[in-house]
Structures are given as C-alpha cells and as structure tokens.
Write a structure and sequence with these properties.
alpha+beta, 42% helix, 145 residues, 2 domains, 16% strand
Length: 145
C-alpha cells in the first residue's frame, strides 16, 4: 500500500488517498476513476511527497528513558559532590536546624562553622523573615538502589 497526497487542479484543495501501488494510481487515473473529494472534479494529480520514515531510535521509549537516566545520573553525581563538600565543611544538626540557626544568629559570641540539617518549609520561612540566611538543596541518599 502507498499513500499519496492528491491535489485538485479545479478547487486547489489537497487530500490523501491510499493505493495498492503506484501502477494502480496510474491505471485509475487513465480510467478516469480518480475524482476530488471536495468538488468531484477529475483534474486530480499527485503532489510531491517526502517519505514518512520513522526514526526508531528517537521515537523509541527505551532511547528516551536512557537519555533521561543519563541526565538523572549526571545531576545525582553533581548533588553528591555538593553533599560531600557540605558534610566535610559544615556541622550536622539534624532536626534541630531552626533552633541551631537562631542560636548562631542571635549569639554573636558563639563562633561556629556553618550548619546543615533538616527543617520544615514553615521554619525556613520564619528563619528568612527573621533575617537568617538559609538555603535549601536536594539531598540524595547514599544507598544506590
């Protein structure tokens, strides 16, 4: 089977039609059995067509998944680099992050290297409202599953 884009010379509209072969198209045309779907004119011709070829690699689900996995793994490696730096240079305070951040901020005598830990979105908003600078970063667990 072959699909052709046909153009009517009378009404200038185009439409698609299927044929068993290119020879079948020519045979029907000679027999004057091809007519326009819109105006019924017999002045129908084939237009130039580009073949419709599917690129199996680009349309393949597994290819797209592979690309997404590569992107994910790249970002995961980058996040782990930041995590390594943070663990090496900052003090972990766990769930007490908001309390510890306030203690450092309001106690000018207490010298401390930076901290990291866990807190809620509400506590982060409160800290920022108080003028305490905080940053949120994604955290990737060490275990690879």
């Amino acid at each position: 089977m072959i699909k052709y884009r046909l153009i009517c010379k009378s009404c200038k509209k185009s439409f698609d039609s299927w044929f068993s072969s290119s020879k079948q198209f020519e045979k029907l045309k000679k027999m004057k059995l091809l007519n326009c779907n819109y105006c019924n004119s017999l002045r129908v011709t084939k237009s130039l067509m580009a073949p419709n070829v599917l690129n199996n690699i680009k349309n393949d689900f597994h290819y797209k998944k592979s690309i997404n996995d590569k992107k994910f793994n790249f970002f995961k490696r980058e996040i782990k680099k930041y995590q390594k730096f943070i663990k090496k240079n900052l003090r972990y305070v766990g769930e007490n992050f908001a309390y510890e951040a306030r203690t450092i901020h309001y106690n000018s005598k207490k010298k401390s290297k930076g901290i990291y830990g866990k807190t809620t979105k509400e506590e982060i908003k409160e800290l920022r409202d108080e003028g305490i600078e905080t940053y949120t970063i994604p955290w990737v667990e060490d275990k690879d599953n």
